[in-house]
Amino acid sequence: MEVRVDKYLFAMRIYKTRSIAAEACKKGRVTMNGVQLKPARTFKTGDVFSVRKNPVTFTYKVLQLSENRLGARLVSEYLQDITSQDQLELLEMARLAGKQGRDRGTGRPTKKDRREIETFFSDDYFLDTLDDDDEE
Fold first, then answer.
1. Is 109:102 a contact under the CB 8 Å cutoff?
2. Is 51 helix (H, G, I), strand (E, B) or coil?
């Protein structure tokens, strides 16, 4: 049995839709032995292929074939992830870099920031600070 590359990538949940999987093949992001794969090419059991999702290149081995989309728990029976350790470290670095968040003071204020601003601009705030200065 053989399965089209785009159908297999969709069925194994590597891509969300079959059209996205076909587009990735056309753009040269799916390779086997250094050769770009076309969407209509077929996979056989035992094939090893690579999928480039910036900044990482994932490598997989075909264990079984299926044209139908599988549940996430079943994917490990059909596909083995053999991505190298250095690529996984690169993925972890990219995740950590993405979690930096925004710098304080950029973008919209949070609820807490808004309350502090309202308190600062309220008339009571200025009266309280003036009273404290008068006592000295």
1. no
2. strand
Is-contact 7 66, C-beta < 8 A?
no
- Domain boundaries along the sequence of the chain: 3-87
Beta-ladder partners of 35? 32
Stated pTM of the model: 0.70
> Which region, left, alpha or beta, applies to residue 28 given φ > 0 means left and ψ of -120 to 50 means alpha?
left
Per the structure block, which two tokens stand in for 121? 């601009």
Give the Å distances, CA to CA, from 35 to 20, 23, 28, 49: 19, 16, 9, 10
Q: Determine the longest span between alpha carbons in the chain, in angstroms.
A: 90
Length of the chain: 136
Q: Which residues of the chain have pLDDT under 50?
A: none
pLDDT of 103 reads: 67
pLDDT computed for residue 68 by the predictor: 94
- Alpha-carbon distance of 43 to 76, in angstroms, equals 17
Rounded-to-integer distance, Cα 117 and Cα 111, Å = 10
The two three-digit tokens of residue 59, written as one number: 């490598």
Topology of domain 3-87, CATH: 3.10.290
